[in-house]
UniProtKB/TrEMBL annotation:
One matching Pfam family: LysM
Boundaries of every LysM domain copy: 31-76, 113-157, 177-223, 301-344
Gene3D superfamilies: 3.40.50.2300, LysM domain (3.10.350.10)
Domain of life, per lineage: Bacteria
Protein's UniProt name: Amino acid/amide ABC transporter substrate-binding protein, HAAT family
Organism in which the protein naturally occurs: Zobellia uliginosa
InterPro entries: LysM (IPR018392), LysM_dom_sf (IPR036779), Peripla_BP_I (IPR028082)
Amino acid sequence: MGIDMNQFLKIGFTLLLFVFVGCKASAQKFTTHAVKKGETLVGIAKQYRVDTETILKLNKEIKDGDNLRVNTILVIPKDGKAKAVAEQSTVKTASSSVQGDKGEAQEEPIGFTSYTVKKRETLYSIAKRFHISTEDIKKYNPELYSSQLKRKMTLKIPKYKRVKPEDILEINEDDFETYTVLPKETRWSIAYKYGITVDSMEVLNPELSKANDYLAVGQELKLPKIAGSTVENQQTQLYLSYTVPPKMNFYQLEQKFGVKSDEVVRLNPEIQERGGLKEGMVIRIPQKKIASGEINTENYNFYEVKPKQTEFSLTRKFGISYKELLELNPDLAQGLKAGMVLKLPKDQKGDFEIRNSLVLDKINLIDSINVQNRPKLMFLLPFRLDKLDLSDKDRVANIIDKRNSLKYSLGLYSGALVALDSIADLGVSVDVKTIDNQLSIEKTKEILQKENLASYSAIVGPLDMPSLKEAAVRAGGKRVPLVAPIPAKSDLSLANVFFSYTSEELLRERMIGYTVEKRTDQHIIVIADDKNQGVKRQLLATFADADTLKVTQEEKNIGINIDKLTRLLSDKTENWVFVETDNFKLVSSVTSILNSLNTEEVKVRMFTTDKNSAFDNEVISNAHLSNLRFTYPSVYKAVSADAFFKRYEKRFGSAPDRYAVRGFDLTFDLLLRLAYKNNLMEASKTVGETEYSGNKFDYERNGASGYFNRSSYILTMEDLRIKEAE
């Protein structure tokens, strides 16, 4: 723990009392290179006097060791550290160009140096250190072809002559064009259209925001020219070269490529000459064109192929045939490669999650952690140690019971401590610093000025909105994420804040969506007081056939007309009644009336889109709510005696409350994400929904406003128990 011993003892002592009382990049110039037949990554890197790792970093669509596809557009840096040698102006024929590439002599080193391998080093890290490729190292250390790199091994490292800046020729700016963003286009769809990655597009356009993915309609982007795009109205039929495998027939060809047999024979007359399809025969297959303008996230989803995946596994995963997949992705006929981005039908469903038109694989974070990642956290919470006299135990216990900020802080932190124990059991080391901001904006500013914020992986807290804004703005300047552990709304755009508590608006949308999905012929009635007319309008817009019942509100009394409600209730189908209010008296009255009208002949079920404190008031009968199968959205569900529950009881001698459960779930999820990728923003791009003891997390970025948890539960009271709705 990164707190001083005096403060640690104070917080620890206060925790015991809490449990005891039961309160739980700079601009850079680039050029592009269209891959020609026979070219290799190493050859291109040497041609432009850069290392292969630089090219791989800027062009995520290619992988080290893969064969380069012809006409792939590569982004190549041309700054002072890596200048490109301009291609010779002499025009070569395709055949002579191929011969030149194949016969090009490899650059010879001007000398060698010896290097002793250190602990945890890899071939990649050593190659990066010396600005050479891993193949260069293997070439002069042939034992690495048959054995692994080992600590204390002595390597022979080649040294090459590098081009001087004055020897560099200028690059023709005609290689690029200006593209104007159209409505509904995204970075993904534009990059896909131009055959480059989003990373490459951002490198070419450094003015693009790093904080969000927003593109404005009419915004101009610098992009590499698509091959042949300067010739007007040209129509070129592209063909694939396909080697006929054993037992292949025309029917299978049609199923695989969608091409009729007579078309195949017309394009390949040797088939007729040789008496049909023969194993090993290389034939031409027409490549289907995709209509321009179809690359749009409104029409398609996109998926990045992972290592070791096959065409068979992908068709099983997405529930479509290989023929359908090939029609959308003609390049697939040249072979499936890791890193390829595949286009999928928009309505496709399966065991995966879709976010911003990107298909995400479900990741098991526990199986994906990297123990070499060492996250550093700051807990910035209001323990109010300045207001507690720890010598007076009874007074401290009384303060904890009455002060919500202290109750929340101690609950969250007690759960977080168990999460730290759990992550340590998985082999992940975490640096933690816990600081009491005393619920004071002045104290928060003082703390933040002293801390080296850039050294932290994430900050948890504070709880008060002024301090949270201050911490978010200061941490945002260092690109450090801040996790808001309780409900929070900001009038500022806080791009680095992870709002972990699902908003009321999202909970309401989830509840309405659930009702729409489950409804068959049920009769809907809406009861909403004056403060909830907006919710009423939203429900009526969704359920146009719903009935409404006016709430009467006099000086001291609030209620509904029982006779009118009785006439509205249907005896032919179940009645679903939405009650929208934050007045516990109205909840009590309506619940009691609905319960009395819920009979064998008239079935009534009660809903709300916002289960606020009014529904938890002690005057509300849980028996009535249970009889009405009261259903509502929630960020939290009750915890059973799981591993966390038992671990908490063992450590603190008491069962965890909902704040302790949330402290554990939030912290354990945060640490697992950081152990997977020690960058919370990057992890959020690939990690979908996660679930723990009583909470779910699924962060989605909303422009510059921050990252918002979209997960929730739909819960139902039945037989005096709360369970997830079916």
